[in-house]
Amino acid sequence: MPTVIVTGSGGLIGSEAVSHFVRAGYDVVGIENDMRAEFFGREASTARTTERLVDSFPEFRSEDLDIRDGEGVRRLFERHRADLEAVVHTAAQPSHDWAASAPQTDFSVNATGTLNLLEAVRHVKPEATFIFTSTNKVYGDRPNSLPLEDAGERLELPEDHRYFGGIDTSMSIDGCMHSLFGVSKAAGDLMVQEYGRYFGIPTVCFRGGCLTGPSHAGAKLHGFLSYLMRCTVTGEPYTVLGYDGKQVRDNIHSNDVVSAMEAFHRAPRGAAVYNLGGGRASNCSMREAIAACERIAGAELDWTLSDEARMGDHRWWISDLSEWERDYPEWKLEYDLETTLREIHDHNVEHWSAAAR
Description:
Blueprint: E1 3-7, H1 12-23, E2 27-31, H2 35-40, H3 47-56, E3 60-63, H4 70-79, E4 84-89, H5 96-101, H6 103-124, E5 129-135, E6 149-150, E7 155-156, H7 179-199, E8 203-208, E9 210-212, H8 224-234, E10 238-241, E11 248-253, H9 254-266, E12 272-276, E13 283-285, H10 286-297, E14 303-306, H11 322-327, H12 337-356
Parallel strand pairs: 1-2, 1-4, 2-3, 4-5, 5-8, 8-12, 9-11, 10-14
Antiparallel strand pairs: 6-7, 11-13
């Protein structure tokens, strides 16, 4: 049976990928060492998700392995050489703020770990598809130079601006602040592209907006929609960082991300790069997200506004999906923001409420 290796298999996109590819008829091997608990604390642990996957799918095996262990990664790939068809790389240190507190760890996970995986593919199965969950943070704070206008509860571009429908991959990644996280992810992103061009491996970088969904273990430093809904349910205070809460994010459900991954695997290209997010169909400002969470949870969020924005953070981001939709017209965005938020709430409300007591 064909095999897919998923890194970060206990995380949001990793766990969705495990479920999706098992149901699509693949054996799936997960690489997961629960570093998320080290990054963000016990409440962000992926252990519960990994246990659920192991219990639910006999076709799934979870390996306790650190992607920074190049020899261990290579041995794992060698064991699955015969049937290996794809690598879905979702493991990462995903936080702006945490990266600044431990730059060497951040870079070793996001850049060196990615390089270890690419080397394993190159030497073991170079025809295997390599799918990388990159980030829009590779563009740094370049979007902050856009001529944004105050539209009440959100910042917005003029309708005649070239990026009104979303930002495409023509935006430069140079000459701006990225955050250390953005730099480590950009290093991995460029390396994935280079292995596609230089070694002919079918690779893709999905530069995601806010990836979200019910399995997201949202924490203060990462996973804003999940953490925002959790705070609304439990009464924990929430701090909005900068821009008067009018900064805009597009949000894409993990199911839509993983369906894009399968579409690419079925018709792979070399060194492909796409911006992937909710686009114009699924986006919100912080203020709009708070109002939606309060409406869905039936509770008022205890929130305050800080004047200090995160360094390198975006004032406005909406992904232009047209390049991706042109190349893969069979893919469709299935989840809008309201559906996604209701799913996050309904899936987690009992667990969050019990933990808060």
